Structures are given as C-alpha cells and as structure tokens.
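Recall that a protein's primary structure is simply its ordered list of amino acids. Everything else, from secondary elements to tertiary packing, is in principle encoded there. The following example makes that idea concrete.
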Amino acid sequence: MFDFDNPPSRLGTHTTKWDRYRERYGLDDVVPLWVADMDFACLDEVQEAIIARAQHPIYGYTDVDAGLAETVAAWERRQHRSEVDPGDIVWNTGVIYALYQLIDWLLAPSEKVIIQTPAYPPFFNTPKALRRGVVYNPLKEDRGVWDLDIDLFCRQLDEDPSIRMFILCNPHNPVGRCWSLDQMNELFMACEQHDVLIVSDEIHADIVRPGCEHISALRCDPRFWDRLILLGAATKTFNLAGLKVSYTIIKNRSRQRDFAALAKANGLSSLNIFAIEAMRAAYTYGDAWKDACNAYIYDNLRYVQAHLAEHAPRVVMNVPEATYLGWMDLRALDTPDDLNERLKCEAGVEFQAGGGFGAAYAQFLRVNCACPRGTLQKGMERFTGYLDERGYR
C-alpha cells in the first residue's frame, strides 16, 4: 500500500541530511544515518494539501483556523488517549523554539532545569544559552536497557531548591524508552513537592514499536496538570520538519493565555501557510500511513540488531520501544572518540556521535533507521566493515 523502499532522491534539494557532504566536506559518497528525519516520501494527502493551497497565488499573512486545534486534539485523543481540549493548545514554529521561550519566560536567571542524560542536546544547550543552570539526572543502564533513576532525581530536588523546571523526554531520545504512568506520577509527585514545573517533549510519541505503548504525560494524575506543559508536533511522525510547525498543550488556563500572548508577540505562533494544511492532512488521514511506517522502521531496527550480532557482536544495541533511533554502545571496542568523524571521511557512513548527548557517552553512536532498507544495509555494512578492517571487532 505504501512504498518505503523506493523514495525519490533528496540530493540537490539543499537537504541538511544529504547535500552537506559535497558542499562542506568535498565528499561524494556518504550514507547519512545521523540527523533525525526520514527519507520516506510524505503521505499523499499531505502533498496534495500543500499543492492545493499553493494553487492560490497569494501567500500572505494567514491565521490558524479554529478547526486545526480540534484536529490536533482529536489526534491526541485517538492516538494517545489524552484529554486535550482545543483551548489548551498554543501554536509554535518548532518544539525547540517553544522550549527556548518557556525557559526564558518561566525561569529566573538564578534558577535551573533538570534533565535526564543521555539527552537530546538542546535540552542542555538551550538553558545554557539563556544562562540558566542545568542539573543532570543520568539514566541507569543494564546491558543496554535504560531506566529512570527516580531515587537520585528526588535527592537532587531535595538538595537543590534552585531547580525549577524538569524537562522530560517522552519517549526518550536517544535510548528509545516509553516511560510508564507509574514512573511519571512518581517523578511528578516529587516535582509537586518541590514546586517544579514539568515540560514533557513528546515529539516522538507516534513512532512506537508494535506491541509497545507511548503513555502521554497528560495521562498522569490530573492534580499535576497545573504544572505540566506538553510539547508536540507532527513533524517527526510525518517528516514535516522543514515546514516549521508544532504545538504546546497547557492545561493551566492562566498560563496558557499568557504563553499564547507571548507567542503572538514574538511571532512564535505565526505558522507557515503550508504547514497549517500539512498538519491538518497528516492528523486527518495519516493513521494507516503512520502504522505502516512504524512497522517498516521496526523491521529496520531489528535488521540492525541482527547485523551487529553477526558482524560486530561486542556492539550492544537493543531494539527501542519508541523512536526510529538505535543507540549503539561501543564501549567494549575501545574506539577513538572521533570515530564518527573517521567513519564519515574514511568509510562513507555517518551516525550521530554519542558525545553530543553528554560527555559520558562518547563511546556511543545513534543510528537513524527511518530510511529504505537498502540505504541502511549499505551504511551498516560500511560501519562493521570499517570496524573489522581497523581491528575493533
């Protein structure tokens, strides 16, 4: 029904993922398995909606109609069983833009955020850019299985009253965990006791391994809604990142109104004219495409796990519960910290270097499996071939 094996080439479209090699590095043959976007053609209805809007030849300032909020609320209810009212939603041009504004608005310069590492780099780089402190709550790991350290989290809140915001990655990037409702309620109870705001980034919420379930933070005990802010988007699920669109869900009505006013004042809620139609189409017609895409992605992730088991058995990677990202542990190989750069220049394959997710993770690589199997196979063969050639097996 959907063809994920034969997408059109992205070369020559100024794509960040593919075109930078020749322009920046003078390299002509690199398989990019790094940045978190897909190589799949978008849903037909999304392209049709953009083309239909483009046929009107005036692209001036455009308001977001009320129906789009209902479409998003319906998707959240249908996909995640979340209680979302259209009036909870504030539009953003992107999740990180919203995160920047929330930190700048809600935290005094002397206050801090707490995050769980390994962490998506903007979770610590954004507060640092705003001169806010960052407290690291490392995840626990046992043979490739990652989990929350709730006891440490509670001690850190006890010991540092300047922590005023918790940024939760749900599902977690890069380790691919879906957090349970009990875990979130326990974390949120600690936040309540210490008057800490909660921001849950759920941009990967729809990309879930068949048989697993993403539990939205909105399904927590309603007593925590007053301090909870959810960041969501269609951009990861439907590969719309270039259109710049996301949304924030805020149950606290006063805070929702204030953030909506701030977003309007700084232009954050002024959405791209084509993004409006693309998100509407994706959340109206995209259920079956999303399910088929997830099945394809998780076949890819299982392929990577099997390929490593056969060709580089000391590299540990479990199939994640969510996201299209594998988190490969190379600590047993004693590879150089610049391995990813060497792979790019010498082997013709690039991953996302683990050190960007925290200094303790320099011996990890993140692999993007949202691409045709042939692309992934070529990249993985180059990777394990290089390890073998250099004696890292």
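The chain has a mean pLDDT of 97. DSSP finds 13 helices and 14 strands in the chain.
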